[in-house]
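Fold Annotation — chain and its backbone
Encoding — discrete vocabulary of local shapes
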Amino acid sequence: MGEEPPRLRPGTVLVATGVFFITLVAFLRSPLLPSIGRDLDLGPFGLSAVVGSFGLGRVLVDLPAGSATDRFSVGGMLGVAASVVGVAAGVMAVAPNLYVLLIGAVLLGMGSAWAAAGAVAFFASAPRASRGMSVSIYGGALLTAQAMGPLIAGFAAVFLDWRIILLLGGVMTLVVAPVFFRAKTVESSGREAKRSGLSAETDVPTRVLWLIYALPAVQFGIGAAVLQTLIPIIGEGDLGYTPATVGLALGIGGAIRFVSALSAGAVSDRYGRKVALVPGLSFQLIGLFVFAGDFGVWGWWLSVGLLTIGSVAANVGGTMLADLSEGGPLGRRLGRYRLVGDSALMLAPLLTGYLFAQHGLRASVSLLVCAAAAVLAGSIRLPETRLAATSP
């Protein structure tokens, strides 16, 4: 018998839209960081702490959210996430000092992670023949929103104060939250698995699991430390760019991410997961070298492009984890997958922000370069999972 042809599952458009909108609001802050720093008198390390607090919020709910995906509807989880993100954006908008700002950033991360948990489990539970494209739809919505949020905020900052931008984003998210709460037809990944007869846990070697878990650690660390923190700081501080220009660059990166995510999904389903994984990691490593080289304007723009192309590797890793978890605790494994990545999302901007302030650009990126190179080497030893969950 041939493989089941790719098809969209019921609820795909709703879940992808929810991920896009919630993530867009959560990432409005990126080009606003320099303005926030001037208003609240924060340096590079203080701004890095804001990004790191967002990661802390995600870490706090990754495991509970992973378990929740096996019991609750995806629509309900998106409704909760939209409500939390709306409140968080409002808290950040009225923050009088760094401490309140950090509380808002933690809440923002919690809402973002809750949405991601439900959505990625939904898309990863698609049939194996179309799973790569399914996860890529999730990745395309997520990564594009991570770039479109800064694009919108950057252009809005030409006319509006950063507080108003965050407040408007929070209000809009609260308004749409009831739409997701009413979406009762979108089932949890646990119910999907039971209906498919998947109940016995699949045995996966620990070494393979940790190699896969390393993928989001590097991806999220690069995204938080470079794309969300150092790119805006250097763009405005060293190159004299306005928030609108920084937002435009990240928005272009979003278009690149969308195309590369769907392309990686198609390649993953047709030729193999590793065929999509290794080139993405390679592009990202090259992007780090270009960024660390400090080549001025052209290097800044080129590094944004290369880093965003490579960001699809985390989606491919999630697809591989789902392949290896058929018949097992998909939600809990994806929770651990996000936990490792979000730990890097929390720690990487703090570490790189400190190194950047004390020792400059090259020192701040050096650890990320080493980590990316190690993960690229390790990915070559991963088993190919497209056709069967193989043992190494």
About this structure: The two ends are 26 Å apart (CA to CA).
